[in-house]
């Protein structure tokens, strides 16, 4: 176990990332976590996390509350030192047994959920705050350029409390990109925005990040948000990475039931695997690679189709809700404890009490060993 860095311990100055001049595109850095362990009160909050974020890549750290996402960001930023393991930027150790680079010398930008704007400073002063290495004139130019990039140049002399939540978010973004960080770390940056404006601001933010080219890690607990913005999603659970990949890879081929449940509200039906096939009350489905034994058959609600009664698996409609683009229909099926959920475009006039036929699209079915649950 490595001790936390003590004052006077081997530190080195890093002109490399620390001073990138005025606003404009960043020189993206590669950020590497090597076997990071972080222990609080004898508990491993991070338990051997290894991850490389490529230059210019946008990675989303996704996981439930308390799984260690923020702790990993804090370690990357240098606000905390890991109990063991190393953090490297472009291959050079910035946290670890042989070095600890101060946060302000890492060239890492931070943006928090609450934006952390200073209320007594104008918008321009807030954005200039991180530009202390520049002359007053250079800082002014860089800050105004960052503000213009987020479309808020006209708000330079306003105070934060006079701005809407979405505008404050953009000021915080301008402040974090103004020093042209090689790496940008964002902790739940959209969670304070109401749903109506979140999608637009999220897309706008991603477009700005692409333009600035900074290597970016965004922490979120919202799978839809991660799918919407990430080049790569890193799914965490209890201080470990359980899967990483593109949103499509994780959605279509989750490594276990936990990962599957994160992205879809499945119908979960107990079944039995025999000779590579899962048998359950709604059908028989391929279960490649699974040993014989109890299983959970997971059926996506959009994979359940309604047909006229008598043609296929019989069911009886329990309820139907109009959700706009689809209807959510609950259907009782013999042998299945809870009604099946179906998200259907064509509910064939389904009314509560009506008998229907059910077809299940095998591409919307995943099977896991019951022990995995
Ligand atoms: N300084 C600390 N001292 C003790 N425990 C801590 C400290 N910082 C974090 N923890 C604990 O470590 C665990 C992980 O916290 P962390 O904030 O990294 O999780 P998270 O995934 O970011 O959660 P959230 O989405 O709620 O922010 C939590 O159980 C938290 O209580």
TrEMBL record:
The Gene Ontology biological process terms listed for this entry are:
quaternary ammonium group transport
Q: Which domain of life is it from?
A: Bacteria
Entry keyword annotation includes Lipid biosynthesis: no
Q: Name one GO cellular component term.
A: ATP-binding cassette (ABC) transporter complex
Q: Give the matching Gene3D superfamilies.
A: P-loop containing nucleotide triphosphate hydrolases
Question: What CDD domains is this protein classified in?
Answer: ABC_Carb_Solutes_like (cd03259)
Q: Kindly provide the name given to this protein in its UniProt entry.
A: Iron(III) transport system ATP-binding protein
The family annotation for this protein states: Belongs to the ABC transporter superfamily.
GO terms assigned for molecular function: ABC-type ferric iron transporter activity; ATP binding; ATP hydrolysis activity
Q: Which keywords belong to this entry?
A: ATP-binding, Cell membrane, Ion transport, Iron, Iron transport, Membrane, Nucleotide-binding, Transport
Can you give the residue ranges of the ABC transporter domain? 31-263
Is Amino-acid biosynthesis one of the keywords UniProt gives this record?
no
């Amino acid at each position: 176990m490595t001790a936390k860095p003590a004052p006077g311990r081997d530190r080195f100055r890093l002109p490399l990332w620390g001073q990138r001049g005025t606003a404009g595109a960043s020189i993206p850095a590669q950020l590497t976590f090597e076997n990071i362990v972080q222990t609080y009160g004898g508990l491993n909050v991070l338990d051997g996390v290894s991850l490389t974020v490529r230059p210019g890549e946008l990675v989303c750290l996704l996981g439930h509350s308390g799984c260690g996402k923020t702790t990993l960001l804090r370690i990357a930023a240098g606000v905390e030192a890991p109990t063991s393991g190393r953090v490297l930027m472009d291959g050079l150790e910035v946290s670890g047994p042989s070095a600890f680079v101060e946060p302000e010398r890492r060239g890492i930008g931070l943006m928090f959920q609450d934006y952390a704007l200073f209320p007594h400073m104008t918008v321009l002063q807030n954005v200039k705050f991180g530009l202390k290495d520049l002359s007053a004139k250079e800082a002014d130019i860089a800050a105004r350029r960052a503000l213009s990039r987020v479309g808020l140049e006209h708000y330079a002399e306003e105070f934060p409390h006079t701005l809407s939540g979405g505008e404050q978010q953009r000021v915080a973004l301008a402040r974090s990109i103004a020093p042209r960080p090689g790496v940008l770390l964002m902790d739940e940056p959209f969670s304070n925005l109401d749903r109506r404006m979140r999608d637009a601001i999220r897309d706008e933010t991603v477009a700005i990040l692409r333009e600035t080219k900074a290597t970016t890690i965004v922490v979120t607990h919202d799978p839809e948000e991660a799918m919407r913005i990430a080049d790569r999603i890193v799914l965490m659970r209890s201080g470990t990475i359980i899967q990483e990949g593109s949103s499509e890879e994780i959605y279509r081929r989750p490594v276990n039931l936990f990962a599957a449940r994160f992205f879809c509200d499945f119908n979960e039906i107990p079944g039995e695997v025999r000779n590579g096939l899962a048998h359950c009350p709604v059908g028989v489905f391929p279960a490649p690679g699974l040993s014989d034994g109890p299983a959970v058959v997971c059926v996506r609600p959009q994979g359940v189709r309604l047909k006229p009664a008598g043609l296929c698996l019989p069911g009886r409609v329990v309820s139907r809700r109009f959700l706009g683009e689809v209807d959510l229909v609950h259907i009782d099926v013999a042998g299945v404890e809870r009604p099946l959920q179906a998200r259907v475009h064509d509910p064939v006039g389904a009314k509560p009490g009506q008998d229907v036929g059910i077809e299940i699209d095998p591409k919307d079915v995943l099977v896991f060993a019951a022990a995995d649950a």
